[in-house]
Amino acid sequence: MVFLFLGGCATLGLDDPFNSNSGRYDQPNWATADTADGDTGDTADGDGDAGAPVLTNLVLAWTDYPNIGTVLEFTADYTDEGDDIVGGTCYIDLFNGSDYIGDFLYEVVDDPGGESEVCSAVGGTLQFAFQELDDTQTGSIGLEVQDGSGNVSATYKVSTLD
Q1: pTM for the structure as a whole
Q2: Which of 4, 45, 64, 153 has the fewest CB atoms within 10 Å, i.e. is most exposed?
Q3: In the chain, what are the domains?
Q4: CA nearest 159: which of 68, 95, 85?
């Protein structure tokens, strides 16, 4: 599975997806009977930290790109009270159908310059994409965004079924 950067940053886990790669100890366990089927809805759990980034208009969709193919693309509008989302981190958990693909930890940047494995925060939009997934299956993600001050957002869950 290859991560494809398309300009921005979000999945669901059967386990605590961030227990080893991110070094964070406070990641939630998103496992429920619903998440295994990818039927998660567009939701946010909890309020997140005061001053943390807030995401709205979350969209996860299969999108065709010339010379690349079909990618699973996530976009969302964001606000961040401290205006320091850039330099923060996206904690992403990815599913393709009922298969847990993995957890990803990417820096939030405002000028990706063709870099992959980043979340892009440009013009009030957070965005990222993954390629080489089975687009006949439901794509699902869980996402938390930590800003440069360390404030962690609510946990967002979204799928292509939404």
Answers
A1: 0.73
A2: 64
A3: 2-19+37-159 (2.60.40.10)
A4: 95
Give the residue from 138, 161, 159, 134 showing the smallest Cα distance to 10. 159
- Residue-wise pLDDT tens digits, 87-145: 999 999 999 999 999 999 989 999 887 777 789 999 999 999 899 999 999 999 999 99
Q: Which residues lie closer than 8 Å to 96 by C-beta, 6 or more apart?
A: 72, 133, 134, 137, 138, 139
Sign of CA pseudo-dihedral 78, 113, 105, 2: positive
Burial of 149 (C-beta count, 10 Å sphere; 0-12/13-18/19+): middle
- Token match 């946990």: residue? 155
Q: Is 86 exposed, middle or buried (0-12, 13-18, 19+ CB in 10 A)?
A: middle
Q: Which 3-state string (H, E, C) describes the chain?
A: CEEECCCCCCCCCCCCCCCCCCCCCCCCCCCCHHHHHCCCCCEEECCCCCCCCEEEEEEEEEEEECCCEEEEEEEEEEECCCCCCCCCEEEEEEEECCEEEEEEEEEEECCCCCCCCEEEEECCEEEEEEECCCCCCCEEEEEEEECCCCCECCEEEEECCC
